[in-house]
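Figure 6 in text form: structure in, sequence out.
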């Protein structure tokens, strides 16, 4: 849930550019372009069956590569989402920002070796900070403003980079040989600060 009330006087509520909590029970054709034959589904949260989440179950993810992409493009933005990595398969899951043709800024997660963070045109850039080994939900926050990129997991800065190749484009979720769950996929305008809990809801702010 995203709330707007409260918060420090020096901050303003973040402007939402895109949002999907998958509670409709299906992948929205108004929000996403789905690769033909994609195994992505909307299913029950592994920890809360009453909640609906985007997923690729183990039986569909093995030896498979697929993607879905937002129908909107984004320039300077902050992405927040929840990620649950299932550990039985050895591949990767992640997202690509500012997708432009074959180029993008890539972020991938793994549980057995390393993940990736960087401009796709620079080749593979692997890092141990993007390993997620426990089967539970994690809060991911990715910031792309100008040529600066930052990645936070559960509030901790895991990676940052400077790169001027890309300025805008859609967001793409993709995976290879991986099972996972994603929820509360939200994109905000500009740089969004650390979320603030307000009466059980989560409120996001930008510097006013």
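Output sequence:
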């Amino acid at each position: 849930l995203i709330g707007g009330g409260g918060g420090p006087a020096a901050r303003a509520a973040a402007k939402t550019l895109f949002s999907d909590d998958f509670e409709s029970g299906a992948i929205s054709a108004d929000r996403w372009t789905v690769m033909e034959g994609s195994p992505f589904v909307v299913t029950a949260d592994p920890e809360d069956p009453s909640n609906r989440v985007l997923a690729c179950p183990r039986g569909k993810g093995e030896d498979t590569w697929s993607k879905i992409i937002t129908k909107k493009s984004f320039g300077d933005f902050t992405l927040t989402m929840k990620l649950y990595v299932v550990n039985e398969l050895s591949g990767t899951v992640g997202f690509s920002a500012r997708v432009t043709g074959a180029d993008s800024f890539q972020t991938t997660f793994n549980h057995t070796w390393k993940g990736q963070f960087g401009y796709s045109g620079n080749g593979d850039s692997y890092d141990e900070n993007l390993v997620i080994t426990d089967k539970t939900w994690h809060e991911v926050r990715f910031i792309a403003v100008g040529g600066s990129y930052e990645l936070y997991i559960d509030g901790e800065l895991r990676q940052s980079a400077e790169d001027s190749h890309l300025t805008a484009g859609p967001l793409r979720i993709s995976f290879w040989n991986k099972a996972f769950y994603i929820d509360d996929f939200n994109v905000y305008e500009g740089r969004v600060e650390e979320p603030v809990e307000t009466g059980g809801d989560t409120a996001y702010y930008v510097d006013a």
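Caption detail: Residues 1-9 have pLDDT under 50 and may be disordered.
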